[in-house]
Every structure is written in C-alpha cells, then in structure tokens.
Amino acid sequence: MSESQKAVLVLADGTVFQGKAFGKIGTTSGELCFNTGMTGYQEVFTDPSYFGQIIIMNNVHTGNYGVMPEDVESDKIQINGLIGRNLEARYSRLKATDSLQNYLESQGIVSIQDVDTRALVIKVRNEGAMNCIISSETDDVEYLKAKLADVPSMGGLELASIVSTKKMYSLGNPDSNIRVAVLDFGVKRNIIKCLADRGVYIKVYPAKTSLAEMQLFEPHGYFISNGPGDPASMDYAIATIKEIIKLKMPLFGICLGHQLLALANGITTFKMHNGHRGLNHPVRNLITGLCEITTQNHGFGVDPLAVKQSSNTEITHINLNDHSIEGIRLKDAPAFSVQYHPEATPGPHDSRYLFDDFINMIKVQNDI
User: Fold this and answer.
1) Are 221 and 361 in contact (CB under 8 A)?
2) What's the CA gap between 359 and 194, in Å, rounded?
3) How many CA atoms lie within 13 A of 275 on its CB side?
C-alpha cells in the first residue's frame, strides 16, 4: 500500500470525507460508530460486539504501540472497517509483534486515515448512528452511494449467532465445585477469564443451544454474554432465558445479555441515538451509592419507562451522563445484569466486583 493512496468515506446522508488508505485496499461498509477510549485499540477491534460496524477512533494516534497476540478478545478482528486521524504503521512498544498496518491488511480490514475525526464524531453525536462506506479502490462517489443504499440497518439484525462459537468448549478448573454454563452471543475472552480466575469450571455453548443441553452439564449458574446486533431479533435467546429464569438459578448477563434479560422479563429495548462506546463512562451503583468508571460498547438500550413499570424488576445502576439504565436485578429470581463491561479490557477494573457477586450468589443458592 502506498502511504499517499487516496481513500473516500461516504455517509448515508451523502456527506463525503476524503482521506488516505490504510490496511487492506478495497471497499467496506457498515454502521458508523465512535469509541472515546485513548488506548486498547486491539481489544476494541477484536470485540465481537463490534461485528458489522465501522469504528471511528477518537484518539488522534492509533497504532503507535503496535499489536500483540495477548491483546485480543476473540480469534480475529471483528470490525468491518476503521477510521482514524492518524493510523500509525510504525510502533514503539518493544514487546509488540507487528504493526497495525500489517495486522489490518493481513485480516482484510479496509481503513481510512487523515480524516477530520473530530468533525465526524460531532456529526454522529448530533445526527445519530448511520451507515457508511469506505473505499480505497474507487473514488466514484455515486457508485459508492448506490452500494451503500443496499447496506441493511442495524435495527432488526440478528448477528449474535454469526459470531458465536460453533461448538461447545470448556475451560477453567474441571475439579471446581462451581460450574457455569455460558451462552455465547459474542463473548469476550476476558469475561471468561474473569470467571476462570475465580476457580470456576466453565462450558461455553453456541448461541442457539437449548436449556436441556446445557442442563446436562449440571451447572450451578448461567452467564449470558455480550454480542452484536438487535436483541429484539433474538427470539430463540429470549425463550431460553425465560426458561432459565423459571429454574430460579443464578443468572448474570453483560451488555447484550443485559438487554436479553430485560426482554425475557417483558421489558422492551430500543435503538440508541449513537450508543455508548469507550472506557470512561461514569455509572452509579444505586445499591451501594458508589460510582464506578466503566467500559461500554452498545448501540441498544433498555427502555427506562418499561423498567419502572415492571413490578418484579429493580434498577441497580444508572449512567451518570444520560441516566440510561445500566443495571437491573429481578425481585423474584436470582438474576441480574449490567449494560457495561465489568471485565474492562480495555478500561479500569472498578466493576470486577460483579463477578464476585455472581460467584457468591451461586454459593448461597447452591449451599456451596
């Protein structure tokens, strides 16, 4: 790739940004979103919750510390494309094994740099999420607009079963007296690690696994993972979670899992104006009164009015920026969830106590 090769970004509203090519030469499309984090770009790119999206990195320099195998959250890059002010081919970290340019190019990720990301983020913030298309192989804007018109909206898309594991796998301590079944809708590796670090034996199941199959593992608790797409399109998952709730067994959901727990309890979700993505979102725990700085990545949310009208649901956490619902728990079942990411990779570890809360709930419920 030539450092001077041109690229073009076209938004669904017809806005055009000119820039320079980075990563693979080609054309890509998806929903436009932005991440406010200053670090952790490799973890962001490999988070399955970003599947189907093109991400704007707010930090001026992305790629300056290279890439490492240890910094991934799944087995490949999940974003559809990348937009940056300065995407760096050179890196400074001695432990890094490759450059961002080689990393993106080897995995087929079309990217664009030298874009006024401040103006672009302000546009998304003000006008809301929209689809976009990046191309470094053609500058025919009318052709790109025609291609972009065929890109589906994120609303109504079921994507979790695409990124989910295709076969069950196990990890953790096989001799543990605590077993947890994980429904994988795009689970991050460090979520599973947070469970394994607490001495749990884990089995991770494909998205459409039945409760009957998971029960063969005789789990003491169930975990519902993060993932991409519209939760309201996941009838199969909502039905399974309803069955788990009826068992009165400990259940913990994160992000998409939070939304699915709400839907299974008759609470609606909605497409947010531009979503929350970054590692500096303030959340208040209404149970303890304490605040925590959280990592977030979601474009859908739980309807606040529907939660307040639910007789068996308690709000446990709220976002201090916009007062959106960040956590709930059921009053008639040992089930709770949070909208944000307590494993926080990247991000602060303020919220990892939630994994301890889940394990303690399992111990109490199962008299362990």
Assistant:
1) yes
2) 11
3) 32
218 and 179 in contact (C-beta within 8 Å)?
yes
Question: Which positions are catalytic?
Answer: 255, 341, 343
Q: What is d(CA 20, CA 9) in angstroms, rounded to the nearest whole number?
A: 10
Lookup: tokens for 109: 């990720």
Q: What is the pLDDT of residues 235-244, one digit of tens each?
A: 999 999 999 9
pLDDT of residue 327: 98
Strand ranges for 39-154 from DSSP E: 53-57, 61-62, 81-83, 86-87, 110-113, 130-135
Minimal CA–CA distance to 351: which of 301, 286, 261, 283? 283
Burial of 274 (0-12, 13-18, 19+ CB in 10 A): middle
- pLDDT 10s digits, 200-246: 999 999 999 999 999 999 999 999 999 999 999 999 999 999 999 99
The pair of structure tokens assigned to 266 is 């008759």
Token code pair at residue 262: 């709400």
Q: What would the pLDDT profile of 44-98 be if each residue is shown by its tens digit?
A: 999 999 999 999 999 999 999 999 999 999 999 999 999 999 999 999 999 999 9
Q: Phi and psi of 311, rounded to 5°?
A: -75, -20
- Sign of the C-alpha dihedral, residues 345, 347, 349, 354? negative
Cβ-contact 262, 269 below 8 angstroms: yes
126/79 Cα distance (integer angstroms):
23
* Single-letter amino acid, residue 325: I
Q: How confident is the model at residue 1 (pLDDT cuts 50, 70, 90)?
A: low
Partners of 317 in the β-ladder: 285, 327
In whole angstroms, how far apart are CA 297 and each of 121, 141, 264?
A: 16, 30, 21
The torsion angle over the Cα atoms of residues 152, 325, 189 and 216, rounded to 10 degrees, is: -90
Residues 6+ apart with CB under 8 A from 207: 160, 161, 164, 183, 184, 185, 227, 236, 237
* Coil vs helix vs strand at 113: strand
d(CA 322, CA 234): 27
